[in-house]
Amino acid sequence: MNSTRPKRLSVRFQRWLTPAVILLAALLLVLSVGLAGLVSSRSLWLDLTPEGLYSLSDAMVEQCEKITRDVKITFCDDPDHLMSDFQSRYVYVMAKELEQKFDNITVETCNVTLNPTAVDRYRVVSSSSIPPTSVIISCGDQFRVYSVGQFWLNGTDDAGNAAGLYSFNGEYKMATAFLSLSALETPKAYFLTNHGERYYVSPLDEAHADLRAGAGQDEDLSVFYELLRKAGLSVDYLDLSDADAVPEDCAVLIINRPSTDLSGGDPYSFRDRTEVEMLDRYISAGNGSVMIFKDPDVSLLNLEQFSERWGIAFVDGATVKHSLPSGERTDVLRAGYNTDDSTVSYAIYETLASVESSPAVMARGSGAVKLAWKDSAGSLSGNFNGQRIYADFLYSPDESALYTVEGDARASDHGRFALAGISTRYWNDSYSLEKYYSYVFSSAASSLISSEYLENPAYGNADVLFSLMRYLARTDKYADLALGSESFNSENMGGKKLVTGKLSPTAYTDSGSRKDCAAFSDGDRVRIAIFTFVPTLAVSVVGFVLYRRRRIL
User: Fold this and answer.
1) Is residue 1 part of a domain?
2) Run of H or E including 462
3) What tens digit of pLDDT does each residue of 355-402 get?
4) Calpha distance 153→493 (Å, rounded)
5) In the chain, how many domains are there?
6) 453 and 544: one domain?
7) Is the dihedral of CA 258, 263, 267, 270 positive or negative?
8) Are 206 and 258 part of one and the same domain?
9) Contact, 200 vs 225, CB < 8 A?
10) Position 515 in a domain
11) Helix (H) or strand (E) holding 534
């Protein structure tokens, strides 16, 4: 009688069955882990957005190839939070794509909510905060701090009000930051010399040992010197009598308390290479700044005329004194901020001026300045693409009066006076459409930069001067780039215009009108995990069954 018992597996097959099953299961497990890693690192992301929001444009890659220095992008929140927010997600993914493509671009994240001191070095002033929505782009000692919202452009409704997101502007913002930070050497602040100016030379600066031994060396400026370096500036010295022009690498030219005048000439002619004419050329060329600190008892006709042409006039021979409750008058002043939020001054120290108890900015022995132009703003003469704007920078207390340098009261000169002013000149080049900025800051309060006030943490002098130096030293020569799907000069403003129209936060949820087109959403990751785990489990079960069957047989 024939037996119905199954045919035994060959001994040779049985010998290799178990190792083969184990090896196959191990390979599938490795494949699963590897695929999960690739998904996590975005190596397998497929950009399904019609605008290419997850892809780098050719123009962006071309611009980034020009970067020769190391650049770091710091996100101030954890990756899972960044990926869950519909605005930060695209910025973060773009940064990771750049990191993967370029060896000199790195991306890091830090949770500033749990570790707020991790980004202390990027605070503009001590009272400023860096929220979790911040993106910090740094290169060496230079950095820019952006909010996630700055990488987007908002649309407007028929009434001109903001109405949802219109365009992703991330490539333009990122590229301009990269190029302005990495392509330029450390900007320089020059102290002007040879007119009795006060300056400071570090003992470590052997190249300027002769200046350090000179009469202009002022140890009281050592804290201001370190403040310049903290603001990302290197320090050098300039004698215009030995120069043909202000050096091109000069971001800020500091003229501090000169006792003799600069050489002048016809202020409206560029034919003569006088010292004042060189200053005019420097400011007119754009991307330059001049800081003037003048004592009220010194008259300098040419320098004062230069400042006046650029919008800031020094009040002749006057000092400011403040009335105390006792009736006594003092020249020690607690300066007031310009709280007009439309001014450049307020933009510079907003984080200080906007708080209820603003830190005191102190000055003593101060003179006064005033607006030299008829109006505080207007078009540049002969340039319809340019503007000039003046703003008071710091004020004396309301109960102040002007006195002559001999101590006599000046009739009718009572109230509040400007101790310093700042004028801005900017224009668009009609051919390249690039923007150029230049600044003149004139102060009749040279004590603002004295160590007495800068090194005292109870005063706000250091924070205000630091913010001012950071503002004046900006050298964003790459202000206009053609990036994204359209030119920066188009209505798209250089971003990737959203094909489906304006977006709101709800538009980027599965329940909204537009589904997020990330290559792998959270649901995609679950499906990937299922498809990779289930085959592994199935092979393992089959292997176990075969193994048990062999034992039974």
Assistant:
1) no
2) helix 461-472
3) 778 889 999 999 999 999 988 877 766 555 678 899 999 999 988 888
4) 8
5) 3
6) no
7) negative
8) yes
9) yes
10) no
11) helix 522-552
Whole-model pTM? 0.61
Beta bridge partners of residue 364, listed in sequence order: 332
State whether 365 and 449 are in the same domain: yes
Residues in the chain: 553
Assess contact for 514 and 508: CB atoms under 8 A. yes
pLDDT, averaged per 10 consecutive residues of the chain (553 residues), comes to: 54 64 74 62 62 80 85 94 89 92 94 89 66 90 81 65 71 80 74 97 94 96 92 90 90 96 69 84 87 94 95 86 76 92 89 84 93 82 72 92 75 81 80 70 96 91 90 60 41 57 40 37 54 65 64 51
State residue 381's pLDDT score.
62
Taking only the tens place, the pLDDT of each residue in 121-146 is 787 545 557 899 999 998 877 788 88
372 and 442 co-located in one domain:
yes
* Residue 32 in domain: yes
Residues 492 and 450 in one domain: no
Please state, in angstroms and rounded to a whole number, the distance separating the CA atoms of residues 461 and 127.
13
C-alpha 62/C-alpha 64 separation (Å) is 6
Domain of residue 163: give its range: 58-181+482-508
- State whether 358 and 244 are in the same domain: yes
What pLDDT shows up at residue 146?
84
Q: Alpha helices of 448-521 — where are they, by DSSP H?
A: 451-454, 461-472
State how far the Cα of 42 lies from the Cα of 62, in Å rounded to an integer.
22
Output the CA torsion sign for 282, 285, 288, 294: positive
Cα 124 to Cα 70, 211, 226, 478, distances in angstroms: 22, 31, 15, 22
Q: Are residues 297 and 275 in the same domain?
A: yes
Question: How many angstroms separate the CA atoms of 456 and 85, rounded?
Answer: 42
Residue 35 has φ and ψ, to the nearest 5°, of -65, -40
The CATH number linked to 94 is: 3.40.30.10
Same domain, 313 and 433: yes
In DSSP notation, 47-101 reads ---TT-TTS--HHHHHHHTT--S-EEEEESS-HHHHHHSTTHHHHHHHHHHHHHH
Cα-flanking dihedrals φ and ψ of residue 80, to 5°? -65, -35
| Residue 516 forms part of a structural domain | no
d(CA 50, CA 499): 7
Tokens of 523: 């649901």
Give the rounded distance of the alpha carbon of 472 from its chain centre: 12
| C-beta neighbour count of 315 within 10 angstroms | 18
CB atoms inside a 10 Å sphere around CB 331: 14
Predicted pLDDT at 459: 92
Dist CA 226 CA 217 (whole Å): 15
